[in-house]
Write a structure and sequence with these properties.
Blueprint: E1 36-39, E2 44-50, E3 63-72, E4 77-80, H1 81-84, E5 88-91, H2 99-104, E6 113-118, E7 139-149, E8 151-153, E9 160-166, E10 179-188, E11 193-203, H3 211-217, E12 225-230, E13 257-267, E14 269-271, E15 278-284, E16 297-306, E17 311-315, E18 324-327, H4 335-341, E19 349-354, E20 365-366, E21 371-372, E22 378-388, H5 398-417, H6 421-434, H7 443-466, H8 470-483, H9 488-500, H10 504-517, H11 522-572
Antiparallel strand pairs: 1-2, 2-6, 3-4, 3-5, 3-7, 6-7, 8-9, 9-12, 10-11, 10-13, 12-13, 14-15, 15-19, 16-17, 16-18, 16-22, 19-22, 20-21
């Protein structure tokens, strides 16, 4: 503000204030033009004169630029940036202005105009600001927020500040695995250039130039330009850096740097599998949001290479060649490729790196253009040309849903017989999902869906037993029994699961109930025999355990008795 009115803090206030107090930190209530509302609980009022743009508001640490006119309640004007023709700039939330400003301007949007009525406690207090502002004065400020530059303490320790010079696009920001492309210039505080690049590409996790760059790009949007203030801990530390390549100037120890940084673009890198053995790098973003589902028919352009660059497969690139086509969840391609393609959008181009476990394993594999050696990591460049999703349940009528469940059940049965239990389990699960919500079905259709749910859940329980997922097998069996309380197969499978998880009492209850319903069931009788043997085995273990525990408990008494005997012998001597 003007030299004759510096918006100084009251003399009894500290230089910096905590503005996050509960009664002051309320966000701006929704206001219409002409309305006035209180902000917080300290008497600060805001009247909206003109609405701002967009939705975002400045935060503590941001550099804001405003025009204002300050008056007393009787209308006496004591200061105005508008009269001077020069906007006023300050850093928000740093105690550079009265507290009412720091609180109120945080509620404003760009271009907004508001009148703040500020009580003395949030202005100049009991002392005022002679000669223009009397003691205990309530003030009014007509403020227009022209713009602001966001300044962030990226690491929260004052070691790395980011000032936004130009906003980026959209909302996405790079992650650790992504490959970013940046431009930057680094300078010492005296302006000496110590690093520059018109195009550097690096993986965020691995970093580049100094630690600050990697930390900063993770907070930036595509196309964003920033000015970084970098303290030594995020620069070159206590040692600095000697002259680099005979061109770049040396960086002294404990130097603070200023870095202009632009995030031009980046390639998203995704870990397709939890064990990080299938990695997908997006070379070109796809269209929309849809992705292939299980059972989708996909069409690809595809180039497969070994790590040494040897091409072993090329599909869809010939002049008259149709794209390569396959159906997901049918084991028509290697697992790593299928998993990756199911995460792609139409027209997306990606580079996929697949470890042997998700590729061709420990055996050699003859492909169209070359032989893949055992234990090979392979790479595919893939373009998802198009795909047709398998129809989802919400797109089906009742009869279509019932038919789809029957189909999935039969597919599951075929896979189970082939020993492909995990894939069979997925078929049964997908089948049940088609008819999960059947409240709108008529009674006849409800009978059909109940029978199908029982069959799918029962068969899925058998899959889970084969896969040694005993808890899930028990849950699925319980679902069946909730629909059909006398289902012997469900009791048998749940008893089997309980035996494997050592819930022997529960297993016995299920087996006894099953034998009540079907006394001649051979499978249940065999399971009951196994259960009795298991109970004996556990009883023996328990007996041994308690025997050993008792022996340990009696050990001190034995020692005491020996000592007593020794003492009595000594006494006789």
């Amino acid at each position: 503000m003007a030299d004759d009115f510096d918006m100084d803090l009251p003399v009894d206030e500290p230089e910096e204030m905590d503005l996050d107090l509960a009664d002051d930190a309320e966000s701006d209530p929704s206001l219409k033009v002409g309305e006035e509302k209180e902000i917080g609980k300290s008497g600060l009022k805001k009247k909206l004169v003109k609405e701002g743009e967009k939705w975002d508001t400045p935060e503590n640490g941001d550099e804001v630029e405003v025009h204002y006119t300050g008056t007393l309640l009787d209308g006496t004007k004591f200061d105005s940036s508008r009269d001077r023709g020069t906007p006023f700039k300050f850093t928000l939330g740093q105690g550079q202005v009265i507290k009412g400003w720091d609180i109120g301007i945080k509620t404003m949007k760009k271009g907004e105009n508001a009148v703040f009525t500020i009580p003395p406690e949030l202005a100049y207090g009991e002392t005022g600001s002679p000669p223009t502002i009397p003691p205990n004065a309530t003030l009014q400020f007509d403020v227009e927020l022209l713009s602001w530059r966001s300044v962030k303490d990226i690491c929260g320790d004052g070691g790395l500040f980011k000032k936004v010079i130009a906003e980026g696009e959209k909302w996405e920001k790079p992650k650790d695995l992504d490959e970013v492309y940046v431009k930057y210039e680094a300078r010492l505080e005296d302006g000496t250039v110590v690093g520059r690049s018109d195009g550097a590409e690096f993986t965020v996790k691995e970093g580049h130039f100094c630690p600050a760059l990697a930390k900063a790009v993770k907070t930036m949007k595509r196309g964003e330009k920033v000015l970084l203030t970098v303290k030594p801990q995020y620069g070159f530390g206590e040692t600095g850096r000697p002259v680099a390549d005979g061109i770049q100037a040396a960086i002294p120890p404990n130097a603070t740097l200023q870095i202009d940084l632009e995030l031009v673009s980046w390639k998203t890198v995704v870990e397709v599998t939890d064990d990080k053995k299938v990695i997908k790098k997006i070379l070109k973003e796809g269209e929309g949001y849809e992705r292939p589902n299980e059972g989708a028919v996909v069409k690809l352009k595809l180039i497969g290479k070994l790590q040494d660059g040897t091409v072993f497969l090329k599909k869809g690139y010939g002049e008259d060649e149709e794209p390569f086509e396959f159906k997901t969840d049918e084991e028509q391609v290697i697992e790593g490729l299928e998993k990756s393609v199911m995460g792609m959008k139409k027209s997306e181009v990606a580079l996929i790196t697949i470890s042997p476990e998700y590729a061709f394993g420990s055996s050699a594999s003859k492909q169209e253009l070359a032989v893949i050696p055992p234990d090979s990591t392979v790479c595919y460049e893939v373009e998802l040309v198009s795909f047709v999703k398998e129809k989802e349940s919400w797109d089906m009528n009742t009869q279509e849903k019932i038919e789809a469940v029957g189909k999935k059940k039969e597919e599951g049965n075929t896979l189970f017989k082939a020993g492909k239990y995990a894939r069979a389990s997925k078929r049964y699960e997908r089948g049940v999902k088609y008819i999960e919500y059947d409240s709108s079905f008529d009674e006849e259709d409800k009978k059909k869906t109940k029978a199908l749910k029982i069959a799918c859940n029962l068969n899925n329980a058998a899959c889970k037993l084969k896969l040694k997922d005993f808890k899930e097998a028990a849950k699925l069996s319980t679902k069946v029994l909730e629909m059909d309380g006398s289902n012997v197969k469900a009791m048998y499978r749940r008893a089997h699961a309980y035996m494997e998880t050592a819930d022997l009492d529960l297993a016995e209850l299920d087996i006894k109930k099953a034998l009540e319903i079907d006394p001649d069931n051979k499978e249940v009788k065999i399971e009951y025999k196994k259960l009795k043997e298991k109970v004996k085995e556990y009883n023996k273990k328990d007996a041994k355990f308690y025997s050993n525990m008792l022996a340990k408990m009696l050990e001190p008494h034995k020692e005491a008795r020996k000592d007593a005997q020794a003492m009595s012998i000594d006494a006789k001597a």
